[in-house]
Design goal:
Blueprint lengths: L1 H4 L6 E5 L21 E9 L7 E8 L22 E9 L4 E7 L1 E4 L5 E5 L5 E5 L4 E7 L1 E2 L6 E6 L2 E6 L4 E8 L16 E7 L2 E7 L10 E3 L34
Antiparallel strand pairs: 1-2, 2-3, 3-4, 4-5, 6-7, 7-8, 8-9, 10-11, 11-12, 12-13, 14-15, 15-16
Length: 253
């Protein structure tokens, strides 16, 4: 358990070079950054000390020779320059590509050096900045990390995955059109979920093992109405969900 808790201590921050021009000096001795085929959007680095860990968010620039010139009328002689591609990837400070330039968006996500990947067809996955894939981008949505797990959605069903990419709570809950942040996020050892039973939708709390720990409460999803916590018959002490055993709180074994 000690090892897992350290995930929250050493985390990275992202700097957008477009908003902080002085950070361009970071690239002084990095010749690969000056390559015509690369556009740097920003970089990830340790909050303290700086910059022991550093990764660059890059996009592809098309060199003039690779751009198809116009052959129409007066535009035939127009001089073409490289243009920014929409796909992004990650390189380390040695210039090694750790995450290929195939993603529509890459952003910090969760603890330590986890990043959320979004593909051009709006599928989501999670990777470490070093390139170790946690889960491939096959999910329709991935909810924010909380308490060492994150909820994943596919085909309108939601379940929970741990930081190793293993499904620890089955993908069997129903998603909401609003993707309300009160749902599918653990806090104090419990998460609110929604399930359709006999045509009606109900919400209730589960623990890290998927055990139901509150009474079910009806919700009217057709009118985008979702009840608040007052409607749920909840445990007074969240540790009751773990039979008082705090070491049994996290499903990450």
């Amino acid at each position: 358990m000690e090892e897992h808790l350290k995930f929250e201590e050493n985390y990275l921050v992202y700097e957008d070079i477009g908003t902080r021009i002085e950070n361009r000096q970071t690239f002084d001795n990095l010749s690969f950054i000056c390559d015509d085929s690369i556009k740097v959007y920003g970089y990830f680095h340790d909050l303290l000390p700086f910059p022991n860990t550093i990764y660059y968010l890059i996009g592809k620039m098309l060199p003039p020779d690779n751009i198809k010139k116009s052959n129409v009328g007066i535009f035939q002689q127009l001089k073409f320059y490289g243009s920014s591609g929409k796909y992004k990837g990650i390189i380390d400070k040695e210039g090694n590509e750790t995450i290929p330039r195939i993603y529509l968006d890459i952003q910090l996500f969760g603890y330590n050096d986890f990043v959320l990947l979004k593909t051009s067809n709006s599928k989501y996955g999670v990777s470490r900045l070093c390139g170790n894939m946690v889960c491939s981008p096959v999910y329709d949505y991935i909810y924010q990390f909380s308490e060492y797990v994150f909820a994943v959605e596919i085909n309108r069903k939601v379940g929970f995955m741990n930081i190793k990419g293993e499904i620890v709570i089955p993908i069997e809950y129903d998603s909401l059109s609003c993707r309300n942040d009160k749902y599918y996020k653990f806090s104090n050892g419990r998460a609110k979920v929604v399930k359709c039973l006999d045509g009606d939708y109900y919400e209730y709390y589960i623990d890290h093992y998927g055990n139901q720990i509150s009474m079910k409460s009806f919700i009217d999803i057709d009118n985008d109405y979702y009840s608040d916590d007052k409607m749920l018959d909840d445990y007074g002490n969240s540790l009751d969900a773990f039979e008082g055993d705090e070491m049994n709180r996290w499903n990450i074994d």
